[in-house]
């Protein structure tokens, strides 16, 4: 592969040159990074902000639509969009007005508001599940779903797919190693062996799924409809039908986490494909960047939850946080569900994503690259493999970290931001065609540069 030929020497030279260019062109960001290091551990308010390929973080000044301006006055076409919270664009007027109005009247009361009734109805209409709860992040929502699944079924085990990520959820930090299930390398501060109550199998492997469910101890399967956190891995035809059938036969609940696949359409991937989860989780974009998440359940499951709670009796459930369901978040959700996440907005996103997919595929074809493009809804991924991997083990072989870093830094220096994690790209309804074309041209330029370096 091109990466194998270049990464030992020439690719490192390219990385060094691009790093020097970044430092020279971003003096204020570099200076602010030095100041931040004196007050923020690791030099940023949250350590993920250091995960970009740039030698120091880019300090943002403002975001408008699908573009960001940094403190050095540089303008970027933004295909990261906050890693999804700003999927519908930065600074949306409807969300800004709703949040401004609500904060003047109080951000949170530990009481429901009239808006909460409206938001609940909107969620039920949009996603099909009748009963809902809020959380502050999708991590919190997934934790709640797992806890309820165990309480309802009386079973201890959660089943996940290798390579998944469902937020800061301890149960999901298990992967397949050479000898079977292991806790993710680098997992900090974990004192209990998560593999005792988490079972992990490859995505798209129905035989492994059937075997994992056979002991009858699995409370729930927690899954994204399309895996998006280990590179994008698409479900094979018939996989979701079999997943639903096998979990029902085993008495196992199905939790679908749509935090990323919400880009599929107004009802998410679930609505677009008619899936039938017992629990549905979505965070990030649901409140336009205001920290919030929601999770819905079927009426049948809600009844079982009531029974489980009655058996337990009064006292703290251990589920929920004070900020969950606050008035500010609900006001933002109402604006998103009524004014922003419209069918028309999704139509523009999907057309833009198709333009991006076609452009990237044209680059791959013209240059004869051993790469491919995956996409779900408005989310697109450039994968350094062909054909597309079917599971995490195959995808890990394609994640050439030096090549990823070089591409990301190349794009940053040419005014394009994509998510810092593998090659995720997200198209918003306000992303303009010239921005998509600039991204494609930048990828093409990078491919040409790599070809030149390896010659």
TrEMBL record:
Essential cofactor(s): pyridoxal 5'-phosphate
Keywords attached to this entry: Aminotransferase, Pyridoxal phosphate, Transferase
A Pfam family per the record: Aminotran_3
Molecular function, one GO term: pyridoxal phosphate binding
Family affiliation: Belongs to the class-III pyridoxal-phosphate-dependent aminotransferase family.
Protein name in UniProt: Aminotransferase
Protein source organism: Caulobacter henricii
Phylogenetic placement of the source organism: Bacteria, Pseudomonadati, Pseudomonadota, Alphaproteobacteria, Caulobacterales
